[in-house]
Amino acid sequence: MQMLFQWEMSKQDPKKLVEQFWKGAAAADLTESFANELFEGAATQIKDLDALIEQHSEWKMERISAIDRAILRLAIYELRANTAQRRTVFNEALELAKKYSSEESTGYLNGILHAVGKTVKKS
Hints:
- By secondary structure, this protein is mainly alpha-helical.
- The chain has seven helices and no strands.
- The chain has helices at residues 2-10, 14-23, 29-44, 46-55, 66-81, 86-100, 103-117.
- It is globular and about 35 Å long.
- The two termini are 21 Å apart.
């Protein structure tokens, strides 16, 4: 989520961003690899992810906060890629919203994720 947020703010090359991100962060090799996979996957599908968000939201993307956009993009990418169980994806997204966004965002994001989740094959 942090890489997606940084990428949207800087619009730099995703591979360069990944390099810079890991200079200042530490993680186990598997965690780093998985995070990179999620970021790169979401970044390459950004138009499709944004279209799904707008389709299931009452707001245009510009009106959704950058942090909430990053959380939604990551969660929807994970749902579509089937990288984790649906409940896990939802819970992680809502925990990120509680930590980095606002209390109001959790309900809003939950609604969008459940609506999008109905269109994505269940895991």
